[in-house]
Structure formats: structure tokens, C-alpha cells
Amino acid sequence: xxxxxxxxxxxxxxxxxxxxxxxxxxxxxxxxxxxxxxxxxxxxxxxxxxxxxxxxxxxxxxxxxxxxxxxxxxxxxxxxxxxxxxxxxxxxxxxxxxxxxxxxxxxxxxxxxxxxxxxxxxxxxxxxxxxxxxxxxxxxxxxxxxxxxxxxxxxxxxxxxxxxxxxxxxxxxxxxxxxxxxxxxxxxxxxxxxxxxxxxxxxxxxxxxxxxxxxxxxxxxxxxxxxxxxxxxxxxxxxxxxxxxxxxxxxxxxxxxxxxxxxxxxxxxxxxxxxxxxxxxxxxxxxxxxxxxxxxxxxxxxxxxxxxxxxxxxxxxxxxxxxxxxxxxxxxxxxxxxxxxxxxxxxxxxxxxxxxxxxxxxxxxxxxxxxxxxxxxxxxxxxxxxxxxxxxxxxxxxxxxxxxxxxxxxxxxxxxxxxxxxxxxxxxxxxxxxxxxx
Length: 438
Ligand code: GDP
Ligand code: IMO
Ligand code: MG
Hints:
By secondary structure, this protein is α/β, with parallel strands linked by helices. It folds into 2 domains: 325 residues, Adenylosuccinate Synthetase, subunit A, domain 1 (Adenylosuccinate Synthetase, Chain A, domain 1), CATH 3.40.440.10; 105 residues, Adenylosuccinate Synthetase, subunit A, domain 2, CATH 1.10.300. It is 33% helix and 20% strand. It contains 14 helices and 22 strands. The strands form 6 sheets. Strands 9-7-5-2-10-1-11-15-21-22 form a 10-stranded mixed sheet, sandwiched between helices. It binds guanosine-5'-diphosphate, 6-O-phosphoryl inosine monophosphate and magnesium ion. The site of 6-O-phosphoryl inosine monophosphate has 24 residues, from helix 4.
């Protein structure tokens, strides 16, 4: 039996967390796992008065019968991990028995965070921008880029390294001098083996309880016919392999393609289940990105306020954009989505009309495919033409069936479905678990 995927077709923050929580309510899944990224993610689950924001731990925390896993493709800040575990404890959620942290996952170390901040300031300076935190790519400053860079250059520590004092000391002896060269190059304070050992040692006894061979646990379940829900982080246009976004992206492959490798599983055809792409009814981006369909002005502010579009990780205001058909099509295609779920349709309740860009204009030419570079994408202008849908100007938050939505809302969904070229199987109309139409 298969792995079902929940992945984002846009630039993150489409409501993956709430859709994962909704899907797990079916009782069908044994596992909920993350495979890529780190605590740059912020996934929100809201049930009644309780709002929980997950950064590293999968969004299925409220489903006590579901096993939770962090895959080997993730970069894990162990300090942030335990902070999140402790925070969840204050919500009455105990995780130690059901959380599996892959032994092969790479660690985000304090120096990765220092370098992340310093490097993004250096990027800002090199581009003649204001030299401030977030001035370059506008990263989340969680150390994600340097951690993945160190993983690729083989200067990382893994969860398994942290568990063995002798291996940890040996690794640090090799890694610290290299890291210090980088810190020095960016005028940051250097570190030492003893400082790193002192910081890591207290984590060992807690990590021992949750560090486990996740890939074996998953394979065992899959062989028995149990279902796994793989929760994507970030989104298609934040993927490091997305040419049109690069370098305004994160440092991992964020599409469905990255999931099996990120879980340490072989790509077995019989384990490949539905790929559910999440499409927010409009688009958002946090950080510095090319955004040809940026709404701007009071209308954008209205959507930002109604949709509470402020970063779940950094609190930054998210830029809000109309749907860009070229991105939607590409986001669904690149993930290999077999179906889509549209989220936050209710946020558009007060809009008199809803533009959709059906093409782009680049240097005086109409283009129907995304350009190859962000440099060109920054120069693109939207072509809205006839794809302006009339709004429905009524609250849809009480709807529970797609058929009960107002005709104009259904027409808007029909346009999205045509562009995506896969069926819409659900629509969310509010942040609560039950505010969902099928
Ligand atoms: P994720 O990163 O994809 O999990 O999404 P985030 O949690 O960062 O952002 C989604 C935000 O929208 C959260 O605040 C959710 O509570 C909220 N949300 C999700 N679905 C809906 C919906 O259908 N309507 C409204 N109004 N809010 C929603
Ligand atoms: P979820 O999983 C939205 C963005 C950052 C920045 C770029 C690089 O909640 O959808 P990084 O810290 O990863 O090096 O930042 O990627 N970014 C996200 N934007 N949602 C996310 O995650 C994001 N994770 C990273 O804002 O532009
Ligand atoms: Mg988010």
C-alpha cells in the first residue's frame, strides 16, 4: 500500500499543515512524515481554540495513533527540535514514543545560523541593497542554506554522529577548522571543538530516545499494507532545482520528487500513491521573489489581513498575488500531481472580481511558458485579458460541499481546474478542521 503525498504547487504557506491534519482525521494513515527542509517551514493546524504551528515536527501531532517521522533528507536543528517538543508538551502532546528522527539526517549547527545571516547580508551588499537581515534572498535565518551546503561539501554532522561521543569528537575535529575559515571570511566569531561539544553533549540523552532508523520502520509498515502520509515543506517555486526561481528559493528539492530519497526509501512503483497538490486560491511569497501578479495597494492589504498572510516562522508580511496560470500549470506538472486541493477560497469572499494572469509579457513579447531565469522573470508583466472571474461577494465559510458553493465560486474553481488539468478533490473555506468542502 502506498505513500500519499501532500505537496505545495506554489511558494509555500498554502495550508499543507491543515490539509495533512484533515487527511489524518480519516484514520487511514499509520505514519505522517517530513522528508526535506528544516525549521524554515511553518505549518499551522487549528482545531477550535487550539492553534499549533509546527516547524520540524509533522502536522499530525493531534492524531495520537499516528507515528511521526523526520526523514534523512531534512536538516534538523536539534535545539529547535527539543524546543518544539517541549512547546507541544504544554499543549498536552507527548511525542517521545511516536517520534522517529532519522539517524542519517544532517544537523543544523549554531554556525549555520550565523553564516546564513552573514551570507544574506553579503548578498544584499553585493547587489547594492540595504545591508540588513533578510536583505539578500530574504532567508528565514534558520541556517538552512549553510546546513545543506555543508551536507553537500561533506562538512556536516548527522544525528547518528551526535549520539556517539567519540564519533562526535572526531567529526568536530575535522569540521570545526573548515567552519572557522568560513566564519572568519564573514567576520563572524569563530567556534571550537570544546565549545561545540559542550553545547551538543546535553542533547544526547534526549536524542537517544527518538533517533531511530525511520526508513526501516516505514518500509516495514509499507510491506504490511499500512499507509504513509508524506507532508511536503515549502513549495514548487522554492525548490532549489526550479530555474525560474533560482536563487530566490530554499536549498532542498521541495517537490514530490524529493520525498522517497528524503525518507531513505527506494522508489518502488507499488508504494507510489496519490500526489495531492495544494493550490491556494491566490498566491503568496515571503522573502524576495519575482512576483509578476503582485496585487499591490489596498486590495493586497485586504487579502493579507483576511488571509492572515504573515509568515508562520518569521512573522514577515507575505506578498499576495493573483493566480498566475503559468505557475499553476508548472507547479502541478513538476510535482506530478494526480489531484489538487484548493485552499483559502473564503479569503476571496469580498473581492468584486478575481483576475487570473493567463500569459506573461517579457520585453514586449507574450510568453506562455515561464522564463528560464529569475532575472527575466523580474522583467515579466502579467497579461490578465479575459481571465477575470466575477467574485461571489458572500461568505462561503459554512459550505461543506463544492456543489453548495455560489456559482461564481464554482466557476472560479473550474478555471483553476482547467489550468491545472487534474481534478479538484477538496476546497477549504476556513482554517478550522471541518471548514472543508468535498
Ligand atoms: P503551510 O506552510 O502550507 O502549512 O501553511 P501555513 O500554515 O504557513 O499558512 C496557512 C495559513 O492559512 C494558516 O494560518 C492557516 O490556519 C490558514 N488557513 C488554512 N486553510 C485556510 C482556509 O481555508 N481559510 C482561511 N481563512 N485560512 C486558512
Ligand atoms: P512552508 O513549509 C514560505 C522561503 C524564505 C526565503 C527562501 C529561502 O511553511 O511552506 P531558507 O530559510 O529556506 O533558506 O529561505 O525560502 N521559505 C518559505 N516561504 N513557506 C515556507 O515553508 C518557506 N521556507 C522557506 O522566505 O524566501
Ligand atoms: Mg508555512
